[in-house]
Amino acid sequence: MHDEVRASRRLIARRRALGLGGTVGLGAVLAACGVGAANGTGSPAATATPSATGTDLVALLDAVDMAGTSPETTEGPYWFDVDSIRSDLREDRPGATLTLALRVQDAQNTPLPDSVVEIWHCDAGGEYSGFEVASGGPPGSDGGQSTSDGSYSQGDTESEPTDDGTYLRGAQVADADGIVRFTSIYPGWYRGRTVHIHVRVHVDQQTVLTTQLFFDDELSDQVYAAAPYSDHTGRDTGNDADSIYADTGLLTVVADGDGWLGYTNLGV
Questions:
Q1: Please, are residues 21 and 170 in contact by the beta-carbon 8 Å criterion?
Q2: Do 189 and 95 touch, CB atoms closer than 8 A?
Q3: How confident is the model over 67-107, as pLDDT tens digits?
Q4: CA distances from 51 to 35, 56, 61, 114, 182 (A)
Q5: Pairing, β 97-105 against β 259-267
Q6: What are phi and psi of 4, to 5 degrees?
Q7: Where are the beta strands (DSSP E) in 160-195?
Q8: Using CA atoms, how far apart are residues 214 and 88, in angstroms rounded to an integer?
Q9: What is the maximum span of the chain, computed from C-alpha positions, in angstroms?
Q10: Is 70 exceeded by the pLDDT of residue 37?
Q11: What is the band of 47 on the pLDDT scale with cuts at 50, 70, 90?
Q12: Contact, 139 vs 77, CB < 8 A?
């Protein structure tokens, strides 16, 4: 394991990020922004979704081929209700910076402001926060299951975390254009799966989409040639061999300073 990954993991000593590291609850975001007042659209305005610096996200997203609804995929065993509205998910996790821009639309490609997009993914060493200390069995199996009761997810079955980590997990409220924007790191990999990000979309505290997003294999190989990814060798599964991969979930990714910008549309 790379020293940066090991050191950053030692910094995580909490079960939830609520109230820490710029994290606030959904209710606080909506109250602070004044739904229907901050920008005249009923959307929580810029506090919930940072503006794109020097980038016309709407134009970029308009150029992505998208019609109808995104495919549902398995949630996987790593999800729990972190109940965390924040844009920067890194918590000092080392890795190549990934800015992620996602636009939520209905089946007619009409943006859905005020929808909540939640994402989670593994770190550069292939670990998921909340499940580093699971001892045997599928991730999350040691902790049992419960039911979510957070500010944007109600009634969903969740895995009980086995440790206090919350890194690389969080949610954002869509702006008037239906867009959310996250700052994270390029995901790592673990055996049996291609590189991916988990996504859920919530409307009125109900989950309306569970899906996964993917990366071009050649790009992943390029990113993984550098530290801290390069210490985690032996990647065994690319997109073609992954049982969940779908072309419709492939992100468009472009260079963005010393990191990357990934973007796509989500149809619900």
A1: no
A2: no
A3: 789 999 999 999 999 999 999 999 999 999 999 999 999 98
A4: 18, 10, 14, 15, 11
A5: parallel
A6: -65, -40
A7: 169-173, 179-185
A8: 20
A9: 52
A10: no
A11: very low
A12: yes
For residue 56, what is the enclosing H or E element?
A: none
1 vs 41: CA distance, rounded Å: 47
What CA–CA distance (Å, rounded) separates 47 from 58?
A: 18
Q: Token digits for 218?
A: 């050649």
What is the CB neighbour count within 10 angstroms for residue 206?
A: 12
| Full residue range of the structural domain in which residue 114 is found | 3-267
One-letter amino acid at 99 equals T
- For residue 237, the domain's CATH number is 2.60.130.10
Domains in the chain, number: 1
Q: Are 261 and 253 in contact (CB under 8 A)?
A: yes
Q: Smallest Cα–Cα separation from 93: which of 138, 60, 123, 134?
A: 123
| DSSP state, residue 116 | E
Compute how many other C-beta atoms are within 10 angstroms of the C-beta atom of residue 78: 20
Helix (H, G, I), strand (E, B) or coil at 213: strand
- Write down the H helix ranges in the chain: 3-10, 26-33, 45-48, 57-62, 217-224
Amino acid at 23: T
* Integer Cα distance of 197 and 245 in angstroms: 11
Q: What is the pLDDT of residue 25?
A: 53
pLDDT grade for 35, boundaries at 50, 70 and 90: very low
CB-based contact 220:98 (threshold 8 Å): no
Indicate the pLDDT class of residue 144, thresholds 50, 70 and 90.
Answer: confident
